[in-house]
Amino acid sequence: MIQITQQRAKCIGCNACVEAADYRWRVSRKDGKCTLVGGIEKRGFYIAKVGDDELEDNMRAAQNCPVHIIRVEMMNSAKMK
Ligand code: SF4
After folding, report:
1. What element of type H or E holds 62?
2. Which domains does the chain have, with CATH numbers?
3. Contact 33, 27 (CB under 8 A)
């Protein structure tokens, strides 16, 4: 599982994340900023936990975001030995 975080207030609506992962990002008609689909707001940050299969596309979204407000992290899976 991976966690995607977006600091939405700083989004400039450039569409780069939508081009990288159109199933996970959508430009809002209301304010022109991008919305993280399935994201839950927490103190200005939107967070979505999604499957590993989305890693590559969303890493590209994070890399292409010109204002660097997207973060993608691998979730620690605590494995028992
Ligand atoms: S790439 Fe970054 S600035 Fe551009 S629309 Fe997506 S979140 Fe906003």
Report:
1. helix 55-64
2. 2-74 (3.30.70.20)
3. yes
Expressed in angstroms and rounded, the spacing between residue 62 Cα and the centre of ligand 1 is 8
By most ligand atoms within 8 Å of CB, the mutation choice from 7, 17, 46 for ligand 1 is: 17
Q: Which residue has the tokens 């304010």?
A: 31
Judge if the beta carbon of residue 9 lies within 6 A of ligand 1.
Answer: no
6-61 pLDDT, tens digit per residue, is 999 999 999 999 999 999 999 999 999 999 999 999 999 999 999 999 999 999 99
Q: Is the whole-model pTM more than 0.85?
A: yes
> Can you say whether the dihedral through the CA atoms of 58, 13, 18, 44 is positive or negative?
positive
